[in-house]
User: What shape does this take?
Amino acid sequence: MRGMKVSTRDLLIPPLHAVVRESTATFAVSDPRLREVLAYFHEHIEDPIDVAELCAHVGVSRRWLEYEFRDSLGVTPYLYIRRHRLDYARRLLIAEPETKIYRLAKRMGFSSAKQLTKAFRREFGVSPRDCRRTAES
Assistant: This one.
């Protein structure tokens, strides 16, 4: 613009995270009972919900739920719950930088910050603190 040359190289900037919008938070599964389970879980993601409670909420057996999750989503209900809680924790780390990690751990159903950190590192390859620092910079 000021007589300077423009670089012809593309500058790729990776996204920090995806923002889930209410309009896109639908579940593409054919069974209405599984859709109800998923909706219930996501509405109560900070509550100490386990697989037994999900079964009771919809009135299905644990075996049915296990098979349906594996067939439709490719994971067990436990892994689905764990992954989505960790992803939610990652979003909270960024959205609420002032919140202590041990408080987020309690909100997500982990018994301690150490337990959250271990699971978080296993899932994302970084600690919650490093994730937060990366997002802040």
